[in-house]
Sequence to fold (84 residues):
Amino acid sequence: MNCYYIIGVRMDNRVGNAAKFQETLTKNGCKIKVRLGLHEVSEDACSNDGIIVLQPYGNKEDVEALVNELNSLEGITASYLDLN
Fold:
């Protein structure tokens, strides 16, 4: 049975928080099918944030565990959508 979920992530202070976020994604790499990163490009102070879309692999408990781990990081807000 295929399970379909999408995780949306908002990252504040992208420059300061990207390293820990990337470390977490690398640790969970086998649980992530697709990653799409979007960020503003300008000299404005608001440009230091980003949105990341993940398609995880696994069941609901696996997805919830990944979302909880992401939410434990400073400047990260993550939630998931169940498309099943």
